[in-house]
Amino acid sequence: MPRRCETDTRLPFLIAGQDGALHRGQALAGGLTPRAIGYRLGEGQWQLLLPDVYLTHPGDASRRQRLVAALLYAGPNAAIDGADACRFHGLTSISTDDDKIHVVVPFGETARSRDFVVVRRTIAPIRTVTTDLLRYVEPATAVVAATRRMRSRRAVLATFSEAVQRRLTTHDALLQAHVEGPPRNSRSGDAALAAIYAGVRSAPEADFRKLAEASAVLPAAEYNVWLRLPSGRIVCVDALWRSAGVVHETNGRSAHAREDLFDDMQERHDELTAVGFVVLHNAPRRIWDQPRNVIAQVERCHVMNEGRGLPEGVEILPIAT
């Protein structure tokens, strides 16, 4: 056993504050010699997680320890990127990769992808949210980085939509992150931003919007419109044709965090109908399986009620209340 080193008394606190992870430079600065580090590794007291990054106990590293190790490896200007950052900010429509951790670094940094760490470089400013243990990119950047790796446009829209619906970010912030992000695989982001700008908040709503826009009968609809009813209650309707007082509701709500005052779909329908709206409902499956029937029904209702306008006493609100 090598002669005991005189280590800095703060070193154990540093290790504890980094959840058991330690960089070689920190170990040397704390008084450990290369020989002492080698002894701990050789005896299995420590293990090498990444080049110059150690886990200071035996056994498997937790996900959080691997996140800390990834930042220690990538450097002080790095931040957790992509899916892990999305999950930190509260998004549920995206899952992390058990085998990979994504980080972003400024363009001039020397860190390279290695082992379980995938490094992305950017010339854009890296905006972060910092905890006591970790640094994450802010929500809009996280969403854009994560969706660049998705092949499904529906999955991209679902992730963008959830971020806006949960008020974690805004359309403008997503647009900025989208422009600053890598150009590869950006077309799905273009489509998602266009849908969100139009008011669409979920993939099934986007499917319905495509049907409505292809119609030669229907004028342009307004999407996710907030209304104050004569009773004073507030409701957000999925699609509205103001000139005819026609509403379309997409019934799938799994990714749709409702913030209006109606918890029950039937209650929503009854109150909207009672004040004079024509309300149509379709489940996502029917929109996919019977698109012609769905849009033909909306077209008939619009033709029958064109010029009637909004029911008396209904107020359109400029923003969610």
Features:
five-stranded mixed sheet; 13 strands; 3 domains; three-stranded antiparallel sheet; alpha+beta; Endonuclease, Chain A; 321 residues; 13 helices
Q: If you had to describe this structure to a student in words, what would you say it looks like?
A:
The structure is a single chain. With 321 residues, this protein is an alpha+beta fold. The protein has three domains: 11-59, no CATH class; 62-197, no CATH class; 203-317, Endonuclease, Chain A, CATH 3.40.960. The chain has helices spanning 11-17, 24-29, 34-42, 63-74, 82-89, 139-147, 153-165, 171-180, 187-197, 203-214, 265-275, 284-289, 291-305, and strands spanning 21-23, 47-50, 53-55, 79-80, 101-106, 117-122, 128-130, 135-137, 222-228, 234-241, 246-250, 278-282, 315-317. β2 (47-50) and β3 (53-55) form a beta hairpin.
